[in-house]
Amino acid sequence: MIATIPLYPGRRSALKRLALCGFALLVAAPGSALPASAGQDGRDLVLFDGFEGTDFAPGGGLYYKDNHEQEAGSYAFESEIVRSGKQAIELSVRSQCKKQNGLCSERAEVWEKPEVLVLYGEPVWYALSMRMATPIPTEPHRYVMAQWKREIIPGAHGDYSPLLALRLVDGRLVATVDTDTGTFQPTGTAERPTACRPGEAPAGTPDEFGQFRTLVAAAPGEHAPAQIGFPGCSPDLVITPRGGTLPALDSGWIDFVFQVKPGPGGDGRIDIVANGQWIVTVEGKIGHEGDGLGEHMYFKFGPYRAGQDGIWKLWYDDFRRGPACTDVASAELCATLGAGVKSALTP
């Protein structure tokens, strides 16, 4: 029997090289503070952390957040499993939740600092290498390895999910995009008898806030989208496959490049590259515009799961962020991404 993995288990109801070589430096006007308050924007900053020291690099804009959920986690700058240079960062979570349900989480996440955040809706490029310890978990559960979110104002109604996330589903790597402005259409109708129309994103059922998740890329696997929690479609999120395939999580290091531009009004765009292969472009109503949301986007990475037994461990290396593709990737790759990338939303 194939288990259907719930999209929001229990949550809706619960209301190194280049570290100091200019590429890594935070760019700010002399005497001015880094952007941290309303209206300020860190998009033009170029950030890099190869995790080569005993703490996060001054030019990386990263920190390990200290809160209750992170008490289940730990981090270490280590030299045994490394993508490049002499070190990488190891992030792991252990069992902490007394009851294994969706209301308790275990995290070991590295966050962007508030003073480097980008205004929501601005395009920005990221690169990051990731490796997961084996054996790879395969049980139906909530596992997230990286996520981009919109700031949430304290006291806001609802629990907004990431606009983009890397997840572990069915033992394989998937990428999901969330929206609260798109439309959901079920399959099993005359218009969509068995599957989504070409270009439409497979979608999960909306929650009470109108938010739903879409599946935009997945490593090869035996289960169809409907069998892993995506029984419908969204015509407001257009997927353009670019020929690449997300790799298996037990294949070693995976080198990611992302362009991320939220656009709940319809002008959003996400590009995903893995191991030099352009995987997918996603366009349309990406992200959220509900009540209680702030004006910045933030990124965090590391293991995040609902309460579970055992230890879950990942390694990360070579974090980069910048306003241009060439700030995070080779000129050759960026030329490929810049060739023939007419929007699927433009006639």
From TrEMBL:
<protein>
    <recommendedName>
        <fullName>Polysaccharide lyase-like protein</fullName>
    </recommendedName>
</protein>
<feature type="region of interest" description="Disordered">
    <location>
        <begin position="180"/>
        <end position="201"/>
    </location>
</feature>
<dbReference type="InterPro" id="IPR025975">
    <property type="entry name" value="Polysacc_lyase"/>
</dbReference>
<dbReference type="Pfam" id="PF14099">
    <property type="entry name" value="Polysacc_lyase"/>
</dbReference>
<dbReference type="InterPro" id="IPR006311">
    <property type="entry name" value="TAT_signal"/>
</dbReference>
<feature type="signal peptide">
    <location>
        <begin position="1"/>
        <end position="33"/>
    </location>
</feature>
<keyword id="KW-0732">Signal</keyword>
